[in-house]
Amino acid sequence: RELFEAPTVEALALRMSVTGAPPLEGTAVELRAGPRSPLFIVHAVGGGISPYRDLARRMEEGPSIYAIQAFGLEGECEPLESVEVMADRYVAAIRRVQPSGPYRLAGWSFGGLVAFEMARRLEEQDEPVASLALIDTTPPGGWFSSEEAWPLGRYLADLAASTGQTHAMAAEEMTALMGAEDRDARAIDLAKRLNLLPHDFTVAQLAPRVAVFRANSKAGASYRPAGRVRSKITLFKAADTSTSFDAWQEWSDLPVHEEDVQGNHYTLLANVAGPLGRLLRFPT
Question: Contact 39/63 with Cβ under 8 angstroms?
Answer without folding.
Answer: yes
